[in-house]
Amino acid sequence: MFRLPALVALTLAIAFGGGAWSASWMLKATSGFGAIRLGSWSAYPDLQTEDADPFAKAHRAGDGRILLGRAEGLVFTAESDETGARLSGRCSYEISGSTPPARFWTLRVTDAAGNPLDAPERVPVSLNSWTTLRNVDGSFRIRLGAAPSSGNWIWLDSDGGVSFVLTLIDTPTAASVSMVELDMPRISLIGCADA
Questions:
Q1: pLDDT at position 20, please?
Q2: Which long-range contacts (C-beta less than 8 Å, at least 24 apart) are formed by 125-130?
Q3: Nearest 5°: CA angle at 149, between 144 and 154?
Q4: Which backbone phi and psi does 103 adopt, to 5 degrees?
Q5: No. of helices (H) and no. of strands (E), the chain
Q6: Quick one: which H or E segment has residue 92?
Q7: Rounded to two decimals, what is the model's pTM?
Q8: Distance from C-alpha of 89 to C-alpha of 161, rounded to nearest angstrom
Q9: Segment (H or E) for 41
Q10: What is the sign, positive or negative, of the torsion defined by CA atoms of 10, 14, 16, 20?
C-alpha cells in the first residue's frame, strides 16, 4: 500500500538532490567557459562582461565577489607549478620572470577556497609591482615559503593546497587578442617540509 508512494518519494528525492548537488558542484568547480591557460596560470577574461556564459554568470552571482571588468584588469590564478604538480602550503616555491605589461600588479597566496591565509603578524603575505626588487632587465625572483629569504619573499606555511593569484591592473593584456603569446612568470618548486 505504501510501497509505491515511498518508491516515488525516494526517486524524486534522489533526482532533486542529485540535480541540486551536481549544479552546486559545477558552479564551484569552474568559473565558466572561456578560460585561457598560460603555463601554470589561468584566467577568465570574459568573466565580468556581458559575453560571459551562463555558468560564469551564475558563479559570479553566487560568489558575491566584485570582479574586474575587462578594461580594468585581469586576474590570473595558478594551482600547480611548472611540472603540473599541485601547489602545497607545506612547500617552498620560486616565481621568476616578468609579468605582462600592466600599470600595477599584485601577487598573493590563497587557500584552496580562494581565501587569504592566516599569517602571523609582520610577515609579507603579498607583493606588488612597486615593492618588488627587480633585475636590470626588469625580471624578478620571488621566494615563497615558511623560512624568511633575502630579497623578495612571501610567507607560505599552510596545510593543504594553495593558489597563487596574480592581478594585473589597467593592462592592455585584457583586451589583447593574442593573450596566448604572453610571457608569464614561472613557478618552480624549491622543496617541501617533511610531513
A1: 78
A2: 125/154, 125/155, 126/154, 127/152, 127/154, 128/104, 129/99, 129/102, 129/104, 129/105, 130/104
A3: 30
A4: -65, -35
A5: 2, 10
A6: strand 91-97
A7: 0.75
A8: 6
A9: strand 41-43
A10: positive
For residue 195, CA distances in Å to 50, 90, 107, 178, 192 come to 46, 8, 27, 43, 9
Place of cell 597566496: 109
Residue 78 CB coordination number (10 Å): 23
Q: pLDDT band for 193, please (50, 70, 90 cuts).
A: confident
**Structural element, H or E, at residue 187:** strand 186-192
Angle at 156 between CA 150 and CA 162, to 5 degrees: 140
Grid cell locating 104: 600595477
- Which three cell numbers, joined as nine digits, stand for 3? 510501497
Q: Residue for cell digits 598573493? A: 108
CA nearest 30: which of 50, 60, 51?
A: 60
Q: What is the DSSP annotation of 113-182?
A: TSPBP---TTS--EEETTT----TTS-EEEEEESS--SSEEEE---SSBEEEEEEEES-GGGG-S-GGG-
Q: For residue 110, what are the contacts with CB-CB under 8 A and spacing of at least 6?
A: 116, 117, 162, 163, 165
Q: What is the pLDDT of residue 47?
A: 62
